[in-house]
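note to self: dont lose this again. the chain is below, predicted strucutre after it. 280 aa total, dont forget to put it in the shared folder this time
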Amino acid sequence: MINGNEVIPSHHVLFVTFDSLRYDVARAVLHGGRSPNLERVLPDGLWEERRTQGSFTFPAHMSFFSGFLPVPSGPGRPGRLFACHSMRGTTIHERTYVFDAPDIVNGLAGLGYRTVCIGGVGFFSNQTKLGRVLPGLFQESHWSSRTGADEPESTRHQVDIALAALRDQPADKPLFLFLNISATHTPTHVYLPGETADSWESQCAALGYADRHLGRLLDALPGHGSWLALFCADHGEAYGEDGYTGHGIAHPCVWTVPYAETIIPGRPPEGRPSVAPKAV
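---
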């Protein structure tokens, strides 16, 4: 497991959440060779099965940004990667980077990170007071109908914004880049031509679509330095199991999510020496 104290603040941070993505979908797509770009950066080319902290987007992300990432599926509780100072911290171990801040976004900003949010679903839309809470944690936030769940090309547009953010990034400053991938959220049937209802299979197709565009971002990252990269779902989705449909419900297919934490090494851009981001 990665020691947060060894990568903060020396590494950029990429955090990608796949909205509503089930663990069994992520695993099936991976083993079917339909997410090759993710496969090449996941530890041992595999997803880890974990349990999320919330059954829908808002509470899950509030927990994540407070340092409570999805937990291992077994009874053991290894030390968290990140935490914020609190009265008690039973999962704060040697590997845990502890921020003196109310959330890790502001904690990273306090260390000199530029914090950028590229939203997907409505909780990142800035269109309502509630929709401003999560993106309001960041110095910069991006959302439009082109990055939302109803846009079939949402991941393409999100990656375009991420690549623009990389181009604008000062060479001596660390970056916290967050993306909430909306393609895996309903409606996903658009990724299976002729289908009119969302299904386990259509979410598989949606993840395959998202992977193709995420490959462009993953290819670009090493040219800007070394990265701590986190990938997970915020929650899963029920497709009729035990009569349940959707999320926001206490069902194993909603609580069980894919998770991965990894290091993406940097490489010097052509014609330039490699420069590590400076802590402030």
